[in-house]
# Entry
Amino acid sequence: MSDKSLVIVESPAKAKTIAAFLGSEFIVESSIGHIRDLPKRASDVPLKYKKTAWARLGVDVDNDFKPLYVIDGDKKEHIQRLKTLLADARQLYLATDEDREGESIAWHLLEVLNPKVPVLRMAFHEITKKAIEQAIQNPREIDQRLVNAQEARRILDRLYGYEVSPVLWKKVMPKLSAGRVQSVSTRMVVDREVQRMRFVVARYWDIDATFQTEDETRFVASLVSVGGQRVASGKDFDEDGKLERKDALILSEQRVSELAQALGDASFHVNSVEQKPYKRSPAPPFMTSTLQQEASRKLRFSSARTMRAAQDLYEAGYITYMRTDSTTLSDTALAAARSLIKELYGDEYLPEKPRRYANKVKNAQEAHEAIRPAGDSFVHPSKVEAEMGGDRGKLYELIWMRTVACQMEDSRGQSVKLTIAATVDGQQLDFAVTGNTITFPGFLRAYVEGSDDPGQELEQRDRPLPAVAEGQSLAGVAFDPKGHETQPPPRYTEASLVKRLEELGVGRPSTYASIISTIQQRGYVWKKGSALVPSFKAFAVVQLLEKHFSDLVDYAFTARMEDELDGIAAGREEAVPWLKRFYFGEDGAAERSQSKRGAEADADEKSDGRMAAVGLRSLVAERLNEIDARAINSLPLGRDEQGREVIIRVGRYGPYLQREDVTASIPEDLPPDEMTIAKASELLEAPSGDRLLGTDEESGLPVYVRSGRFGSYVQLGEAGGKEKPRTGSLLKSMQPSEMTLADALKMLSLPRVVGEHPEQKQPVTAQLGRYGPYISCGKDSRSLEKEEDVFSVTLEQAMVLFAQPKTRGQRKASEPIKELGVDEYSGGTITLREGRFGLYVTDGETNASLRKDDTPDSIDNARAQELLHQRRERAPVKKKKAKKKAAASSEKAAAGKGKKKAGKAKAAADTAAEANGSDEDEAPRSRASQPPSKAAAKKASAKKPQKKLVAKKAKSKGTGKKSSKPSPRDSEPAGDSVE
# Structure
């Protein structure tokens, strides 16, 4: 045994930074994320458990919810390396993150490695030399309460996903998923869209008047009252667009035009001048949710992009831990911030005492510091920008500015409100304007917080007004009638959804980014600009859950589960009894009601009494047969002018409209709130593309042009007979509405025989294929440049093409449509191109398809970088082919192989680092994506040649998809995982 200690962290990047702070007596190694988890697929379940009733869940619900943990196949070699290092170590330090999931990873390492040496738990919230040395000197034991809370969360999410998701498969469509946080988040987006759909636009008018003082200073004021009655403004209407203040006066366009004309002859005077001082205090330092919100507003980063950059900054030692509910700053941080303020801005910007912020977050979790620059003195943003650049540099600057600003003096100013009066037709008209004058900028010198409300930002600008006195006369210069329309509630953006989840106490800071990514990847939500738009599929899923499993998408119920998990972490509650109440419903309602008092108890019992009394398992079993699949997938839209009912239906191949016997597909990029009766009638009455073109003289069969799932095509003969009718695709230049019988017969003539190959004596044919036009002779083929060439290519031209070497399936790269600037992550130039599957952006290494609402004109550098970042996050890591181990491999070779594998894992970590602490919602694999059967698996393991055959068969049946290599901790399932 050596004198060295082994330190294990989660990621290779973190290991590299920590190793630089420790001496040669320490070996720092990464676990490369989670080392084991509940089985993801049937093939992961060990043979001895396969026949048990609970194997599908991976949790023995009848034996105190004992989880079945399995080690990922890709991790086994690395775990063996850790065991080898541990066997020669003096002691083991577990240095995973100091939160529930980090504690859980440490516990799993302890369970798997089974060390025979002393085990110490290192805890730190920043990766600096001082913090690491203090952690080494002050170790602690693993906090089993945090472990229990995290394991209870993991088991809860498995039970939720694996019980409820199959209901969605049977009643909505395959491959859907339900989850504790995912479903609630989806409901929130759907509820907001429903508000927009029922919103009725209201119109109201006022007048903008331009006034001028004696010294010719001009300013604009708005009409606020007529004859003592207040003129209606936007705030007088409710969320449905209805007038909420009945005493407000709604002016018509004609009325304001008459008033504007009459005002030309009126005289004006200052009716009142109200002055009062104001001050604004700085916002607290960042915690996870506010960092995501502000990065979205100021940098246009998605939540996932923000957390990825924060992860990199933390692991490089530049910021403190980035998953926190806390707004507390340590004395060290306060001293560093105050020193900077004095140096950069002077004593007048430094408060007498440090500012301390109270935590107002519901369900606040671990007691970390706020997110701030790490260390006793803050590294200047220019240094981080030079070293790390891109997203990391921008995010660090944001964190640096917010931390410094939160310790600066208040911004102070003077607010002035003027009212100007005039008399028209015996009625007094009042105009008002408010101005702000900043007398001392305070923290605004360093930082101005963003806002989701552009109007609020305008109000915060410095807008001085001229100095006037009450009774002073003013000249009226211009009077402009202004029409306004009430606006529906804005759709959620990533920032506002995070804010709302936090307000409700749903989820954890570490879950927000992964949940938002999940609901987009599942097709429940898509982006229109920065707004989150629900799909009609999401409407059907939410409708099912609300009608039959209302507790599962109840905001209070979901938040209360977070409270109870916190109770387990604090030792106030035991995990097993709590899981029993949730799953089996053993006296759950009685136990919960006893712990509540008054009105709060009544509200709680209403929301979760049914769940507590029955339990999830029984509730799913008893409700399954009650669910009418057709009703769940039907969304009544209303009746058209003829009184015919129009219904939106969610089908296997997407949403469609139905009116009596007529149906029409709904465009994928049509937001639900734009689906009105008028729009539905337009779609239903539009030519469907299915029409008879005529009769083929040669065969006597009818020729049709039809619309199919993958586009329009022509068909010879009727479907439904013993033989399938002959079909042919359309050229890209062809329009279904313009197709003629001659065009259709031309397409049905393919493949066209060009001639006979002079040497091979085989026919040369020209045809359209999946990847475009080509010529073929036997097993040899060559691509054609244009689709029209299939009708004109000659035998001589074909021979020239066959004489050229094959490109082995590689397509010639298309010329870029336009350049979009430099990608800050890779440093490559981003270009917009058109490929086989449509428009995409690329930096030369990563390609990302454009989304529904993206167009060549609207795509810019920021949006392109966001698409590329999203693509990198979900990109699977290619599996490394297994190699036969040499019989006499040396210890040096094994160590070298371990380093190589860690390097690949580092790349995986960089690809999906954001999901650290992810709490994504979990679903089992639906039947359409189940792994190969037990028999197939047995055959596959017999011989190598048979493996290919079985894999090929499995693929043809839509089974046995390859799973991507798990990423380090941050991308592996920790809470509600997605498969």
The chain is about 35% helix and 20% strand. Residues 452-459, 588-609, 877-920, 927-979 have pLDDT under 50 and may be disordered.
